[in-house]
Design brief:
The complex is a heterodimer.
Chain A lengths: L9 H8 L9 H15 L1
Chain B lengths: L13 H7 L7 H8 L2 H8 L22 E2 L3 E3 L5 E5 L8 H13 L6 E5 L29 H23 L6 E4 L2 E4 L4 E4 H8 L28 H6 L14 E7 L7 E5 L1 H4 L4 E7 L2 E6 L2 H8 L3 E4 L9 H13 L3 E2 L7 H6 L3 E9 L11 E7 L2 E6 L4 H12 L6 E5 L12 H14 L3 E4 L2 H6 L7 E9 L5 E10 L2 H5 L1 H7 L18 E8 L12 H20 L4 H9 L3 H13 L9 E9 L4 E10 L6 E10 L6 H20 L5 E2 L2 E2 L17 E7 L12 H17 L17
Parallel strand pairs in B: 3-4, 8-18, 16-17, 20-21, 24-27
Antiparallel strand pairs in B: 1-2, 2-3, 5-6, 6-7, 8-11, 9-12, 10-11, 13-21, 14-19, 15-16, 15-18, 19-20, 22-23, 23-24, 25-26
Helix pairs in contact in B: 2-3, 4-5, 5-6, 12-13, 17-21, 18-19, 20-21
The chains are: A mainly alpha, B alpha+beta.
Chain lengths: 42, 743
């Protein structure tokens, strides 16, 4: 995701990650982590 | 906090053990390490350190010379304090919370804390809140049930350290203080580390009634410390039950018969037995197993096995027969719930308004990402198990029963759980593992595929409910009745306990007697055995009983023409803590602010969980297609040890409960679940996850629970929001299969 879209918005993240299941449903934190990572890599 | 403890107190590396065996196994962990580049190479060149490595079992013989050790803490000469944890970590964060409590009372420096799991079944590890004599991690009790025990253990240790220091300096212990892993003599400012004092302290008598610190002396309580399990999980070193690697072990692939309770009649294994690596093909209690050198060899050979099963009454069961047996049971009298009070029939008769509702809950699967597994070694009278389990006592019992040996002789190695949600006790997989290992004469890892795990789960029971409510002239509830039919967790999982308690079983808890104080209440429970095995499920009774109550109360508010938050508030006003969470969540959600918003509220209070929780769900997109936009939750579960862990637990519970209510259902055909993987068993995905806002209030000095509470009210708050948007009350789960159109 970050290679193709270095600064993804929420829709980018959701669509890239919708095939990865988290049964503990930590989705909101995964979203935040991806955003954090994208900003760190910038 | 970047300085959080990372490494376990003792080293060792499973990957290097693989190298020593001359085998290169590209395990999941190795892949994770590979992702980290040079770390991968480093891991494979590290010498094997022998002892059980990462967060493994801590046994008394691990106590080194000069170490202070009790059932909950070990202090080494290196000044490292290791928390010894008998509770299982399934991602709920209890290993961090427990370590935090121990460090706080002890006066230890957080960065000098480590933790290890133990699978010992010491009497002091027995859970005082659940059942009898079980070391068990369930019911969100890891902290709430053991808080005093942990503090006593740490306070005892602290007093011994202080006494050792005072004796060394020949001063009064009252002039000494333990903080940041040092004992300091305040007048002279001399200090010695816990590590320097451990050896001397270990020789002192153990204080019987240690002084517990007051809350103000426990600055670590309430801090948002980083989770201790995260580094292991990020670098791939965390060991789960599935990762068990016992020297010389074989692998078993398993297939169970269609219906729960199936018994094998014949096995044709001629081809399978000749296939590469195959050691054994055998019948197990509900199916067949193939044992081979490698898992894929076993799975490939299993595909060539043809077995037949004896006829079984469960084969005739389906979702339709389950529903009809629930309806029949609900039409009968059932057993009267405890807590029934007042004169329900009389109050209903004289009520100004009366209404009723029908409720239906589907069979669910836990579907943890890590399917269950058990590795067993059975040689002579020696039996060892490696698995992820919520209860080492239960699994030792299952193994002992299958082998006809004393449970006390069974050694259990517990590991991280890759998700529990009420699932992880191992009757079937543990029984299979010991029987197969005994037959094979070698350690065997029993691996269930995702398909076997979902089909042969300990499912959440289906449930039907019927409720009636009567309102007085002011529109307030004066009569409430909730009648339910379902299977029971105790009946299905703990038959001996159930025999003593029956007709009491989990579904009855919270059926009536809510915080609303409705003056006349009736309730009944009609036990209805399911044709699948039933077990505990995150949220248990609070989910269905909370749903029924909060849906009826919400309908009452609208019938009374009152705001649903103000209506609930009016009934809860006697308890300021109840009012506080309700007011808080209303503020978070900006309840009553803005036009055309569809918000639903639900409240739940539980004595068992020591919790009060209010949830507001906001939906958008009607009538084209609904989307859950926001979930707001405010929770008071007493004293909060770590607010971050508490919020995360609630958030996970909210989204898990949302997934349960919206999408999830196991349907039965010819006695078997029709869903066996995530293609058929739909769970919440990231693009469907709303924003979640959770705030916790720390109140008082008694910690309550967070792990399950998020599930309690989210489904019904959603249902209540859908009512606002559509005028329809959704009372049949899962919603998407019963008329709810999603965006």
């Amino acid at each position: 995701l970050l290679k193709v879209t270095p600064l993804p918005n929420r829709n980018d993240i959701d669509s890239a990650m919708s095939g990865n299941l988290c049964r503990c449903a930590a989705y909101t934190r995964i979203r935040t982590a991806i955003t954090d990572a994208s900003e760190t890599l910038r | 906090m970047s300085t959080a403890p990372l490494a376990p107190a003792t080293g060792g590396d499973e990957s290097s053990a693989n190298v020593a065996d001359g085998e290169f196994q590209l395990s999941r962990r190795a892949i994770l390490k590979g992702a980290a580049g040079s770390v991968f190479l480093l891991a494979f060149s590290m010498p094997a350190l022998g002892k059980a490595a990462i967060a493994g079992a801590m046994v008394p013989e691990d106590a080194a010379v000069g170490q202070l050790l009790n059932a909950f803490l070990a202090i080494g000469a290196d000044n490292i304090v290791t928390a010894i944890i008998a509770q299982t970590e399934g991602g709920q964060g209890n290993s961090t919370g427990i370590t935090q409590v121990l460090a706080a009372e002890l006066g230890a420096e957080w960065t000098l804390m480590r933790y290890q799991f133990t699978s010992e079944r010491l009497p002091i590890y027995v859970n005082p809140s659940l059942y009898e004599g079980l070391v068990i991690t369930a019911g969100s009790t890891s902290i709430s049930s053991f808080y005093k025990t942990f503090r006593n253990a740490a306070a005892t240790t602290r007093e011994m350290l202080v006494t050792a220091a005072a004796q060394r300096w020949k001063v009064s212990p009252t002039d000494c203080i333990a903080e940041k892993s040092f004992v300091t003599h305040r007048p002279s400012k001399r200090r010695l580390s816990f590590g320097q004092l451990a050896a001397a302290a270990s020789k002192l008598p153990v204080p019987k009634e240690p002084h517990l610190r007051s809350l103000v002396e426990l600055p670590l309580i309430g801090q948002e410390l980083a989770r201790l399990d995260v580094p292991y999980k990020v670098n791939g070193s965390a060991r789960f039950g599935f990762d068990a690697d016992v020297p010389g072990m074989l692998y078993a692939a398993i297939r169970h018969g269609k219906a729960y309770g199936s018994v094998v009649a014949t096995i044709d294994a001629e081809r399978a037995r000749k296939m590469p690596g195959v050691h054994l093909v055998m019948a197990i209690p509900q199916g067949v197993a193939v044992v081979a050198d490698q898992y894929w060899q076993a799975a490939t050979a299993l595909a060539e096995v043809r077995e037949t099963y004896h006829d079984h009454p469960n084969l005739k069961q389906s979702s339709a027969t389950v529903e009809s047996s629930l309806r029949k049971a609900l039409a009968g009298p059932g057993d009267t719930a405890f807590g029934v009070h007042g004169d329900f029939p009389g109050a209903l008769k004289s009520a100004a308004k009366v209404f009723e509702g029908d409720f239906s809950f589907a069979i669910l699967a836990h579907a943890p990402i890590e399917p269950v597994s058990c590795t067993a070694l059975v040689i002579g009278d020696r039996c060892e198990l490696w698995l992820s389990t919520k209860s080492s006592t239960l699994d030792a019992g299952f193994a002992a029963k299958a082998l006809g040996i004393d449970p006390a002789t069974v050694k259990v190695h517990n590991e991280f759980q890759g998700g529990d949600f009420g699932r992880r006790s191992g009757k079937d997989h543990t029984t299979e593992a010991v029987l197969i290992a005994k037959a094979a004469g070698k350690p065997v890892k029993v691996v269930w595929t995702r398909e076997e795990d979902i089909r042969m789960d300990q499912h959440r029971t289906a449930l039907l409910g019927h409720a009636r409510m009567g309102l007085d002239g002011e529109g307030m509830p004066v009569a409430f009745e909730s009648r339910i039919a379902s299977d029971g967790v105790w009946r299905a999982l703990f038959p001996e306990w159930y025999a003593k308690k029956k007709p009491l079983d989990l579904p009855i808890f919270g059926l009536v007697g809510s915080a609303y104080g409705i003056p006349n209440e009736a309730g009944s429970y009609a036990v209805t055995p399911m044709p699948v095995r039933v077990g505990a499920f995150r949220g248990n009774a609070e989910v269905h009983n909370g749903f029924i109550l909060e849906s009826m109360v919400d309908e009452a508010a609208y019938m009374a023409g009152q705001d649903p938050v103000a209506y609930r508030r009016r009934m809860l006003v006697k308890d300021p803590r109840n009012v506080a969470v309700l007011d808080h969540v209303a503020k978070m959600a900006k309840w009553g602010v803005g036009q055309n918003r569809a918000l639903g509220v639900a409240f739940y209070a539980s004595d068992f969980y020591k919790c009060r929780l209010a949830v507001i769900v906001e939906v958008t997109g009607f009538p084209e297609g609904m989307k859950v936009k926001n979930i707001f939750a405010a929770c008071d579960s007493g004293l909060v040890i770590n607010p971050k862990l508490a919020r995360q637990s609630i958030e996970g519970g909210l989204l898990f409960g949302l997934s349960n209510a919206l999408y999830e259902e196991i349907t039965l055909k010819d006695g078997a679940p029709e869903q066996s993987n995530f293609n058929g068993y739909r769970v919440l995905r990231m693009n469907e996850a709303p924003d979640v806002f959770v705030e916790v209030m720390s109140v008082g000095e008694e910690p309550g629970s967070f792990g399950e509470v998020g599930t309690f009210s989210v489904g019904v708050a959603l249902s209540n929001a859908i009512f606002v948007a559509t005028g329809q009350r959704m009372r049949t789960q899962p919603f998407v299969k019963h008329g709810l159109k999603l965006a």
